[in-house]
Amino acid sequence: MPMYTDQLFEEVDFSGEDFREAELTRCTFIKCKFVNTQLEEAYTTGCKFENCDFHGAALNASVHDESAFTNCLFEAANLFVAKFTACKMTGSDFARAELSGITIVKGDWSYTNLRHVKLDKQNLREIRFVEADLMEASLEKSDLRNCDLTRANLTQTNLSGADLRGAELEGVPWKTINLKGARMDTMQAITLLRSLGAKVD
Q1: 1-108 belongs to which homologous superfamily?
Q2: Which pLDDT score, from 0 to 100, does residue 189 have?
Q3: What span, in angstroms and rounded, lies between the C-alpha atoms of 193 and 46?
């Protein structure tokens, strides 16, 4: 079980290595490769991962507290039942990643690629998704209260039954979103009606 504290790694290739149950505390990884690395049940606290490649990595059941994964690639990675608490994920790419059972507690997921992800019935309150790409994602019955979805790409996104009250929705393409049964506050409803051409007095 690897344990690292307050260490810096730059352009190190950890591809294919066994980091299961690893404990990483306040470490910084810059342009490192974790391709197909085994990170099941790994635990990170206050770590920074910048421009790292987690393509195909196994991160299932891993736990991350106040860590940052900025501009990282998680393509085809396994994040089954992983947990991210107050993490900064800006600019990261989750194309074809397995996100079933993931837990996200607050944090900043702005500018991320989350196309086609399924996050149904998830508690996603107070998360920043500014300009995130959620095209054709499914957030059915998810709790999105007080999220910041400013200019997020929600084209053909399924928000049926979702709770949007208090969320920031500036620049959202209303006409393409499935909002059947979604809960909205009064100001959101007025904005929606106006975007559809209605006159609200």
Answers
A1: E3 ubiquitin-protein ligase SopA (2.160.20.80)
A2: 81
A3: 43
Q: Which of 74, 159, 68 is nearest to 120 (CA)?
A: 159
CATH superfamily of 114-201: E3 ubiquitin-protein ligase SopA (2.160.20.80)
Q: Which residues contact 129 (CB under 8 A, 6 or more apart)?
A: 109, 110, 112, 147, 148, 149, 152
Cα–Cα distance, 123 to 197 (Å, whole number): 32
Please list the residues that pair with 70 across neighbouring strands: 50
- The model's confidence at residue 172, banded by pLDDT at 50, 70 and 90, is confident
Rounded distance, CA 21 to CA 39, Å?
7
Task: Answer yes or no: are the C-beta atoms of 119 and 100 closer than 8 Å.
Answer: no
Q: Output the pLDDT for position 198.
A: 66
| Neighbouring-strand partners of residue 123 | 143
**Token match 């979103």: residue?**
177
Mean pLDDT of the chain: 94
Note the pTM of the prediction, 2 decimals: 0.92
Helix (H, G, I), strand (E, B), or coil: what is residue 195? helix
What SS3 string covers 73-103? ECCCCECCCCEEECCECCCCECCCCECCCCE
Cβ 142 vs Cβ 120: under 8 Å: yes
Residue 76's closest CA among 93, 52, 51? 93
Distance CA 153, CA 5 (A): 38
